[in-house]
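Recombinase family protein
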Amino acid sequence: MFQHVIEIPQTQEDHPIWNQQLRGATYCRTSTNQEEQNSSLENQIAYYTAFIQSNPLWRFVAVCADQASRLHTKNRSGYRKILRGCRRGKIHLILVKSLSRFGRDAREAISTIRKLK
């Protein structure tokens, strides 16, 4: 086994986002129009809106949502809107329930995150 440990010191760039002034938004999505999915969407919106607003350094910008979004990302207006806000510098932080809510699959989610970074 490894017996030598290399410590990598934290740099200025590694500050936790909690202590930064950011404009935050949430992206919420459901896959179907079923009743339990509707309440899931409402719960996602309420939770992440409150979470962003709980940090005094963050400014809440928007909720972007898509309902019954089995569609490809190019057909999801809320998804396109939140990415447009990021590209324009109006949104610094996106909160989502899970990566599966952000992208249709891991490849798409990772690709989009890399573009935003």
